[in-house]
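Hey, resending since the last one bounced:
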Amino acid sequence: MYEPTDAQITVSIPDRRHELLADLLLDAVLTEGADESAAQASMRTAQQRGRQLGATAREETRPGRLGPERGLTACERLLDRYGYEPVRETPTRLRLRNCPFHPLAGKAPDLVCGMNQAFLSSYLDGLEVNGVEAVLAPQPGECCVRLSPSEHDREGRTAQDR
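The C-alpha cells again:
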C-alpha cells in the first residue's frame, strides 16, 4: 500500500530553516581559504549568498530606486519565504518575529546571529535598498536581527541630507 519516497516532508511550527544555515556552512567549509578561519569563511559565504539573492531579486523585479519603505516591502517576500515572520513596526522598520535558525542560534549565537546579520545586510546591498540596515537587536523568542533606518544611504548621505 505504501512506498518510500525520495521527497522530504518537514513540518515545523514556527518555521525553521536549518537547511539554509547548513548550506551556508557547507559552502564555507568547501571554500575556506588558508588565510581565514572557519568563522570568517562562514561570514563570507553568508555575505555572498545574501548579495547574490538580493541581486537576483533586483534583476527579476527591476524595482528602480529603493528607499526605506519600498525596500522593506521588497525584502518582506524573502523574509517571509525563509520563515522570519516579518512585521512592519513603522514604515521604515521591520521586526523579525521568528528565528529560522533556532535552536542552533542558542548553541552558537555569535556565529549564527553573525551569519544571519551578514546574510540580511548583504541581501539589502544586493537589492540596492537605500536607508535601511540589518542590525543585531536580540529579543527573547525573536530573530536577533532587525531591519532599521540607517544613518547613511548607499551614496553616503545622512538621513538629514536625503
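Residues 38-61 form the longest helix (24 residues).

Sorry for the duplicate.
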